[in-house]
Amino acid sequence: MNDWALTGIILAALAVFFIFNMYCFGFIASHFIYKKVLTREGGKNDKWGRICSDTKNPEQVEMWRLANAWKEKYAHAHTPCHLTSEGYELVGDYYDFKSDKCVIIIPGRNETGVYSLYFAEPYRKAGYNVLVFDPRAHGLSTGEYSYCGIGEAADALAFANYAHDKLGNKKVAFHGICIGGGSIALLMGSPKAPKFISTIVLDGLYTSFYEQFRNHLSEGGHPTWPVLDCMRIIIRHHTGADIKRDCPYKAVKSIHVPTLLLAGEQDTYSRPNKTKLLYEALGSKNKKLVWFKKGAHSHLKINDEAGYEAAIIDWLGSL
């Protein structure tokens, strides 16, 4: 064996050793990240509960206060609801304003149906009943794992059928924030999309949870390789969801109902250049993209209450 061949073998062995150790590190790090970020940890009452998800963020605290104020103001119209989806017992809240149309508002990760009420007012003003629910593993609903918006698409379908078949709403609209929007996109881009859905509104939609989570890791100064790929494997093991393959970017091509995208120029998770790709790929002939100059991810409304409400009310009025 000549020196070049021996050198090649040594370098190849070192590369394999390096990659093996990096993936060992990746799986260890991913386990702790997954437990912290995407599991309820045995149903802890103070994790993903009906509480403010970030008491250190003044905007989040104010959003939570306004959501509860709305809840109290319209308590007279409230009826609790319960249903089962893929073995999970889900708890929801219905606000009946004597209309034959309803909006279902689906929150992002860490949030519950109470938080969703923060986004309800423009729909009430437009003459819609309001239905919110705690996603699986959140609030009063059962479950331990987040399905990263993928498995939750089945929950969106279950509540849509409930709103139409049981509550008597002839038309149903969806409003989704972050992962909630991802669930809606995956449902409405699939053969299971209900025919009675009149429109969807997506706030901070991302191309894939894989990419959005990479942005989370990068912003926090964490390595993305090989942690992100290890996370993908762990998530798929626990939930069956593939955060790279099962993505909104593929789904929106098959969405044909009227669709409003709400996006932030300062959003570092669902980045503007990717939002433009989503809008271009969106299959609906009746679509609109509204930009907001201020506001972090999921915080567009709190930075422009009037503009956010007007965007939704104008959109609904144009249908």
What does this structure look like?
- It is a single chain.
- This protein has helices spanning 3-37, 58-73, 113-116, 121-125, 152-166, 179-188, 209-219, 227-239, 248-251, 272-281, 300-303, 305-318; strands spanning 78-85, 88-95, 101-106, 129-133, 171-177, 197-203, 259-264, 287-292.
- With 319 residues, the chain is α/β, with parallel strands linked by helices.
- The chain has one domain: Rossmann fold (3-Layer(aba) Sandwich).
- An 8-stranded mixed beta sheet has the order 1-2-4-3-5-6-7-8, sandwiched between helices.
- Helix 1 crosses helix 8 (227-239) and helix 5 crosses helix 6.
Q: Determine the number of helices (DSSP H or I, runs of at least 4 residues).
A: 12
Helix-and-strand structural type? alpha/beta
CATH superfamily descriptor: Alpha/Beta hydrolase fold, catalytic domain
Helix content: 40-55%
The CATH topology comes to Rossmann fold
Pattern of helices and strands: HHEEEHHEHEHEHHHEHEHH
Number of structurally distinct domains? 1
**What general outline do the C-alpha atoms trace?**
globular
Largest sheet: 8 strands, mixed
Q: What CATH architecture label applies?
A: 3-Layer(aba) Sandwich
* Average pLDDT reading: 91
Terminal CA distance: 76 Å
- Measured by DSSP, the beta-strand proportion falls in 15-25%
Please give the CATH class: Alpha Beta
What strand order characterises the main sheet?
Answer: 1-2-4-3-5-6-7-8
